[in-house]
Design goal:
By secondary structure, the chain is α+β, with helices and mostly antiparallel strands. 37% of the residues lie in helices and 31% in strands. The protein has a 6-stranded antiparallel β-sheet with strand order 1-2-3-4-6-5. β5 (112-113) and β6 (116-123) form a beta hairpin.
Length: 143
């Protein structure tokens, strides 16, 4: 049975700062910075913000390009999780991509929320950050 992840930013009155994020994710800071640098270098019109969501009682980081949401980030001790939501029309692109088979299969078999499905990756190592970068490219190119 998979252990439930405990997200660390649940206090509505404490908006996450870079220092606070890095104090929670520890040495995964370099992976966070790699993803954010990739976005700033390749997607000048992308921007992110922290928002508190009452439904989950958590602060989440939302990255957008113009009005399109690219992904969401939730922070836990020692790691962070990046979640993308793709419409069904993304399936052929994702299945034809060079993403790891576990990611492609997970999407294909993933639970539908209306006409969308999620790809969620807990970032703990370099290969996880590389998956996120590939997903950013896919997400920004799909209409």
């Amino acid at each position: 049975m998979e252990e439930k992840e405990i997200l660390v930013f649940s206090d509505k009155d404490i908006k996450p700062s870079e220092d606070l994020i890095f104090s929670k994710i520890g040495d995964k800071k370099i992976l966070w910075q790699k993803i954010m640098k990739y976005l700033s270098d390749n997607y000048k019109d992308a921007s992110g913000s922290w928002n508190y969501y009452n439904d989950g009682k958590q602060w989440l980081f939302k990255m957008v390009q113009k009005k399109k949401t690219i992904f969401w980030i939730a922070v836990m001790d020692g790691a962070f999780r990046v979640t993308f939501y793709f419409s069904d029309n993304a399936e052929p692109v994702i299945l034809a991509s060079n993403l790891p088979s576990a990611v492609r299969d997970g999407f294909k078999k993933g639970k539908h929320y209306g006409k969308i499905r999620a790809i969620s990756t807990k970032v703990t190592k370099e290969t996880d950050a590389e998956i996120i970068i590939k997903l950013i490219d896919i997400k920004t190119k799909i209409k």
